[in-house]
Amino acid sequence: MALLSISGLGDGILNALNVLNDFMWTYIIIVLLVFCAVYFTISTRGVQFVLIKDMVRIMLGLDEKKDAEKEGKKRRKITSFGAFAISLSSRVGTGNLAGVASAIVVGGPGAVFWMWVMALLGAANGFVESTLAQLYKRKGEDAYYGGPAYYMQIGLKKKWMGVLFAVLITGTFGMAYQIFQSNTMCEALSNTFGWDKAVFGVLFTIGTLVIIFGGVQRVARFTSVIAPIMAIGYILLALFIVITNIEAIPSVFKMILEGAFGMEQVAGGTIGAAVMQGIKRGLFSNEAGEGSAPNAAASAETSHPVKQGLVQALGVFVDTLLICSCTAFIILSTGSLSSGEDGILLTNVAIESELGVFGRYFLTATILLLAYSTIIGNYFYGETNIRFITRNRYAVPVFRIVTGCMVMIGAVITLQTAWTFVDIMMGLMTLCNLVAILLLSDKVFRLLRNYVEQKRAGKNPKFHRSMMPDIEKDIECWD
Known about the structure:
Layout: H1 2-43, H2 47-50, H3 52-59, H4 62-71, H5 80-91, H6 98-107, H7 110-135, E1 138-139, E2 144-145, H8 148-155, H9 159-193, H10 197-212, H11 216-244, H12 249-261, H13 263-268, H14 271-286, H15 293-297, H16 305-333, H17 343-389, H18 395-410, H19 415-456
Antiparallel strand pairs: 1-2
């Protein structure tokens, strides 16, 4: 009887959280997320579209490398590409595989269309938040650091808001997201090799602790190697499967568009689910406006804040338009949606239907790289904000141990429970960040005008804090 009572209480709490989650996303977060995306796109005159060439050039470090060679400077510890890789390692994870699959199951193929829309418009959110992180970044012992908590405290003069955000992002990335990544990773490995998930949980907990106790430089080195490899490998796999099923591509686009706009979907009321799932799972994957990528963006040394904002906007496109689309096309072109599976198991069914046993092992290896590198990237965000909350020398080591515990917990809980906690924590964090970047967006618009003016004059844009005398005293790193 006691066990039944405890079980019933747990179900009641989970149901209450689901009700809160649905209300928060339906009536508050999606409305604000879309408003910010449209407003920033219009106010920046479509910066995420008109400066794509700059995004690629800056990401590759071509301008900065040329300047460094002229001035005889040493290469920086964390470059624009290094910061891009850290944020990409967090963006590109099991959300691209399990999250997209779940979105299609719940919202139908139309959810993919709304993922695309939010990536195209939401990249403006990513640009604004990451530019702000660069403007208000601080100097650390071995790297720059910053993020939403810092621009809330320094730019808005609201330390309480910065502390609130720091707590939310630490709970989201240091706990909720780690649980989900570990859950998906261990589920896939257990399905492939038949071992208990707890065994993999122990192994990955140990591996995670070994890396994160090495510090930010080890994180940057690890992710700068793993992120490009895992992204390229998965894209090549998707291209092979799509080419193999090339005759199905027209019908895939038809399913996606009908799911987004079809009369049958309107009559059945399923378009709302498609929009909801597309936006929620798209945000979980590309993180544009969520407030996570700015923590990585702040770590880069670059000559102008706008440059890193552009690089992070590019990360949104890479994540959603490329990698999330790969998963969607794999599932829809192989007809695996009718299998009845969900999450990572649906993606596994789709790949295995084309590549046999090899496909299962390839996906397992991909998940291992994606999830594990995401866990490391997520940890980086948590540590940055722990340092904001407190200077206690024991805080970071304790957080590292907590991260290991979350990886272990994720190995043994259910996927539904993991999603519930992820959605709630992600929603609260996003809400807090969107309010802040709306209030500070005029600083970004000024920086963008300064950047464009220098580009038109044939210069490699450089920023000095004297260019914004009204907030010069708040800017530390732009002498």
